[in-house]
Amino acid sequence: MKNEWSLHPLAFTYWVKKEQFLLAQDTDPAWTMFAVERGRFAYRIGAHAGEAGFGDLVVCPPGIAFHRRALSPLTFHFIKFDWEVAPGPDESAALGGRWTVRDAERLLSTYRYMKEIGGAIRQEPALGRMKHMMEDLWRLMEIERSHAESAARYSSDAPAPDMVEARKWLLERAYQPLAMRELSDALGISPVQLTRRFRAAYRTTPTEFVTGLRLERACRLLEETTQPLDWIAQQCGYENGFYLSRVFTAKLGMTPSAHRRLHRV
Fold first, then answer.
1. How much of the chain exceeds pLDDT 90, in percent?
2. 12 near 78, Cβ under 8 Å?
3. Residue 60: beta bridge partners?
4. Which homologous superfamily does the CATH classification assign to the domain defined by 7-153?
5. Which CATH number fits domain 161-262: 3.10.20.30, 3.40.50.2300, 1.10.10.60, 1.10.10.10?
6. Gap between the terminal Cα atoms of the chain
7. Exposure pattern of 126-160 as b/e (b: 16+ CB <10 Å)?
8. Are 55 and 101 in contact (CB under 8 A)?
9. pLDDT value at residue 123
10. More confident residue, 119 or 135
């Protein structure tokens, strides 16, 4: 993975509630990044494809077609940049695709600074400030990916390949509406087989696994932000705050508001 994170910002735009992209695909001579604050969009960049929402940053290397489609009104940061030390072809491929940042408080703080700096970044002091924010963002992304890779490398379990794929599928889609039938069909097994085999591999059902991920994110957002419950629900894959509150209370034994009060210092 890249060791030299020094970069040069070229352009920055902050879009609010964009309902569709002007171009369904584009190929840029510079590196580009979509950093999502609200909403979701589908993307495809070479071999990388999926959906992205809050906490996700989608990076496209230069000269690669970036296919994108808004799935809901999208608020995001659009960034163009170049590396001070250009990565090689293999490294470029590794840097492209979706990166996920779990530290919501740190991420939202960086986003606020980027919005304050704005798009006039061709001269100082805005250029230096945006450079600092973006390099900090990249290092945060790299730290979180390293943690995930280390956890996978040192895991003592060795589930069957299709269950590893099932877990990956759920991780990628945990915070959006999903149907387990779609996963079982993709694996060529029945929903009952999926549940039984996933439980044998990971000691939990697919539904319980996703609920755990969603509630973990909800707890972090309640503790680390002052965002309203409906906003938090949307970032966790639930339709609204009322439904999140029902699940949260049933699983954790207290309401979201009580959890937030408990963890306020």
1. 45
2. yes
3. 32
4. Regulatory protein AraC (2.60.120.280)
5. 1.10.10.60
6. 37
7. beebbbebbbebbebbbebeeeeeeeeeeeeeebe
8. yes
9. 86
10. 135
